[in-house]
Amino acid sequence: MSNVIPFSELSRLHKLNLLDHKKQEFKEREIYLARLRKLLFQVEGQMRQAEIEQFELYHAILDDFQLEVAFPNWGDRVGLQRIFKEHPALMTITEFLEERLSPEECYERLTKLKDTSPKT
Questions:
Q1: Rounded to whole angstroms, how far apart are CA atoms 16 and 81?
Q2: pLDDT at 1
């Protein structure tokens, strides 16, 4: 008959094996998370760039019509959302870009806003 392995030794080996297995699971998950974080960072950067390009489009239209808009800080997401929902010029441009206004209607509204805005 072969040697009898004590239960305590079997239990210890089982727990060591379990710890090694869990460590391997953790490493695999960490590698996966690191790849996802990198991808998320890249996507977030691309989204930020697209948002900036959208703001530049609004600024170009506002500059053409010589309309002044005091935008909040870039990091103030709530402030940016609020100004786009409350400022008449931005609302008009948004409606035009979303094809709810014709170019003629947009032009008329923006011109009217320019005529009624305080002169600096």
A1: 55
A2: 52
